[in-house]
Design brief:
The protein has 11 helices and 10 strands. It has helices at 35-39, 46-67, 87-104, 113-119, 171-181, 188-196, 220-232, 239-267, 283-292, 302-305, 310-321, and strands at 4-9, 14-21, 25-33, 77-83, 108-112, 139-144, 149-156, 159-165, 273-276, 297-298. The site of 5'-O-[(R)-(carboxyoxy)(hydroxy)phosphoryl]adenosine (KG4) has 20 residues, from helix 5 and helix 6.
């Protein structure tokens, strides 16, 4: 029997629903982004995000079923993100999933959002080729997004060891904040990457937080360093300054991410590296990871890097096969980790 799972994801500012077959074949993948709404605040406004989820969840799920050309009766389970994320946002998706599962008589599968980012690599991605079928564990996963910077040793399906993570800002958050300082817009990652293409990373000397002996990261000092340099300038700031600053900042983040990932891959004898999360869409990060490591480095199509529900349905499939079912008392876990 072919297992079809409806995935629901509302952990941050994307209301998303998707239908995935056997954890690999994407039948539909609908994402309603609130990025434009939050752009005016320069970051995600939690209260607004949860209200928008309430408005969008029903049409987004309807659209996902319609695009997959299936009805509720064709589904085998509903997989939903229960953490980590913003409490008010997580609650909308979780309660909708619970209500639907109850009414439609479907099993409910709890999914850790970070595991979703990981299992995005099992989805069939066409030209880029997925990790599925090619992977031998252990592998090292770097999950870098607006909310997370996690370095994970994946020993097997569902077996993780968290090696380290950010002590302050997430990598994507740092991109967003620096983009705001440089007046480049929101979300900041793509804007900084674009500006950096015209800049010289060596033109401005920025620090790198190596935190020796750990696999942890810290980006708040870098952010402050950017601000200090910026404050020394008086208007009008030459255009080339912004491009150079974007390039120098990006190089600092990429250097630390890649060096620690490469070190972990070596120490734990990894057979491959998986890059996931919104920041993994960054071309400089992808290029540097491939240049630094001889191991296969798997990356994703952009829609599968950023938050989406196909990855939740994908991870949900593996959980479903392992017999994981949530009771009606399943609650959100905003601080959930991958262990
Ligand atoms: O995975 P995601 O959609 O949401 C979270 O779970 O947070 O990641 C969004 C983050 C934002 O901070 C955005 O600025 C960053 O990913 N991002 C990028 C790029 N595209 C998105 N950062 C650097 N370079 C990019 N090209
Ligand atoms: Zn995410």
């Amino acid at each position: 029997m072919t297992i079809r799972i409806l995935g629901i994801e509302t952990s941050c500012d994307e209301t998303a629903a998707a239908v995935v077959e056997e954890g690999r074949m994407i039948l539909s993948n609908v994402v309603a982004s609130q990025a434009e709404l939050h752009a005016q605040y320069g970051g995600v406004f939690p209260e607004m995000a949860s209200r928008m989820h309430v408005e969008s969840i029903v049409p987004v799920v309807d659209q996902a079923l319609a695009a997959a050309h299936i009805g509720w009766d064709d589904l085998d389970a509903i997989a939903v993100t229960y953490g980590p994320g913003l409490p008010g946002s997580l609650l909308v998706g979780l309660n909708f999933a619970k209500g639907s599962a109850l009414v439609k008589g479907l099993p409910l599968v709890p999914v850790n959002h970070l595991e979703g980012h990981l299992y995005a690599h099992w989805l069939q991605t066409g030209a880029e080729g997925s990790a599925d079928g090619n992977l031998r564990f252990p592998v090292i996963a770097l999950i870098v997004s607006g909310g997370h910077t996690e370095l994970i040793l994946v020993q097997d399906y569902g077996q993780y060891e968290r090696l380290g993570g950010t002590l302050d800002d997430a990598a994507g958050e740092a991109f967003d904040k620096v983009a705001r300082m440089l007046k480049l817009g929101y979300p900041g990652g793509p804007a900084v990457e674009h500006a950096a293409k015209l800049g010289n990373p060596a033109a401005i000397d920025l620090p790198r937080a190596w935190l020796p002996g750990t696999y942890d990261f810290s980006f708040s000092g870098l952010k402050t360093a950017v601000l200090r340099v910026l404050q020394k300038y008086t208007e009008p700031v030459p255009h080339s300054f912004y491009a150079n600053m974007a390039a120098a900042f990006q190089a600092s983040v990429v250097d630390v991410l890649v060096e620690k990932t490469a070190r972990a891959a070596k120490e734990f004898g990894a057979n491959a590296v998986l890059l996931s999360g919104g920041v993994s869409a960054n071309g400089a990060l992808r290029d540097a990871a491939r240049a630094e490591m001889t191991l296969p480095v798997y990356t994703l199509r952009k829609v599968l890097c950023t938050d989406n529900a196909a990855m939740i349905a994908g991870a949900g499939f593996f959980r479903f096969q392992a017999g994981d079912r949530a009771g009606w008392d399943l609650d959100i876990e905003p601080g959930l980790q991958l262990t």
